[in-house]
Design brief:
Rossmann fold; Molybdenum Cofactor Biosythetic Enzyme, Chain A; 2 domains; 15-stranded mixed beta sheet
């Protein structure tokens, strides 16, 4: 069957975040891990192709995104959605701007919008400035991100630095007046030669007003928030059937590699409940010690799993992360931790874990690849932006949730298993 919406996400947790919002709004959704090599077999309204392209060189991110576009077009996608993080994670060079321009060129379109707004998770855009909760993005902790430090909250300025096209603004006053006024503003911006417009949104109501104005736009670029206003354009309404997953079984575990403020609090909460937790020290992974660390973790976890979920984490304070980066370099330090946690996830599944929570975008990407997961069916939401998913396999598959570092309440790790039960 032909799909309505074809989505390209720049990391794995972001892909499930987007898919979650589409499911909640009535779409049946499958998420693929990387670009599939065969036509789609599932009967769904939307496909989210999850890439791991957020922090790779821009040329590689463009090539992967264009490959995803080509496959989605072959499945009959009527509209393309390029999804990035609600904190607009990027560097001055990209990859949001370069990928957006490449997709625009490939689709032959001269205009698109850009907004990471996701009010359910406290991400709002006002007068072009991105807020995380009550503070500007560059005061939220994102200025300390190890790979994509965000030091400017002005999205027009950030986007303009990454793109050759002129960047403009559709402000909150325009959005509040609804779809027709938004369309008029788009027409005026296009006449001025603007190619990309940042859009204000401070509430879900704003996103629902924006949705109808995007009907028929070849390319939408956004965080996951805009997704709540798109299914209605295809005549779809929310339904319980969209989020049904197979029955659960097996043991439970959490693997956490994020260093975000939110995930640090979630790790602390899980430990405070008295559940078993073991830290992987990034420094201990150096000098060829990674495999020994992984085996030590699995030997610790094996006898504990029968009594409930265990947590394995590498979460650390920013200063500790910087110390390891100083010795190894940013990319090498990140890759070491990801590789170790992915090996832990693989080992936990081999021990009988069938319900797995993974925290952190890069960690999620590494774990999904280590588990040879090619496709995920999207299920019920745990917290805004984070659904349970099911990865099918011959032995019944694994229920897995891929949590973006900044998402989720403090009790997320415990609550997740309650939601699934």
């Amino acid at each position: 069957m032909k799909i309505k919406l074809g989505c390209i996400a720049d990391d794995f947790t972001g892909a499930t975040d987007l898919a979650n919002n589409l499911v909640r709004s009535g779409m049946r959704v499958v998420q693929t891990i990387g670009v599939p090599t065969a036509p789609l077999a599932a009967d769904v309204h939307a496909v989210v192709v999850a890439l791991k392209s957020r922090t790779i060189p821009a040329a590689e991110a463009i090539a992967q995104s264009l490959a995803a576009l080509k496959w989605l077009q072959a499945q009959g996608a009527e509209q393309i959605y390029f999804k990035y993080c609600s904190t607009f994670d990027s560097t001055p060079e990209g990859n949001i701007g370069p990928v957006t321009e490449a997709l625009m060129d490939a689709l032959g379109t001269d205009f698109t919008i850009a907004t990471p707004a996701f009010p359910d998770n406290g991400r709002t855009v006002f007068k072009g400035y991105l807020f995380a909760g009550n503070v500007l993005l560059n005061e939220s902790g994102m200025q300390n991100h190890p790979l994509t430090p965000m030091n400017d909250a002005n999205l027009v300025r950030v986007m303009q630095a990454q793109t050759k096209r002129r960047v403009g603004l559709i402000d909150y006053k325009t959005v509040a007046q609804g779809a027709e006024t938004i369309r008029e503003r788009i027409a005026a911006l296009r006449a001025e030669g603007v190619g990309v417009a940042v859009v204000d949104a401070t509430s879900n109501d704003d996103l629902l007003l924006l949705g109808p104005a995007l009907k028929g736009m070849p390319l939408v670029t956004a965080g996951s928030g805009v997704a709540i206003g798109l299914p209605a354009n295809f005549g779809l309404q929310p339904s319980l059937q969209a989020s049904q997953l197979p029955a659960t079984s097996g043991l439970q575990a959490v693997v956490s590699g994020s260093c975000s403020v939110a995930t640090n609090a979630q790790v602390a909460h899980f430990k405070a409940t008295g559940r078993p937790a073991m830290a992987i020290n990034p420094a201990a992974l150096m000098h060829g010690q990674s495999d020994a660390q992984v085996q030590q973790v699995l030997a610790w976890a094996a006898p504990l799993l029968k009594d409930g979920p265990v947590l394995v984490y590498s979460t650390a304070e920013p200063d500790a992360v910087k110390a390891v980066q100083a010795q190894l370099g940013v990319a090498e330090a990140g890759a070491l931790v990801e590789h170790a946690l992915a090996a832990v996830a693989r080992g936990l599944v081999d021990l009988g874990v069938k319900q797995l929570v993974v925290a952190g975008g890069e960690t999620s990407g590494a774990c999904v690849q280590a588990l040879d997961i090619a496709q995920l069916q999207i299920g019920p939401q745990i917290d805004p932006g984070v659904p349970w998913c099911h990865a099918p396999s011959e032995d019944g598959g694994v229920h897995i949730t891929l949590k973006s570092g900044n998402f989720g309440t403090e009790d997320f790790f415990s609550k997740a298993f309650t939601v699934l039960a």
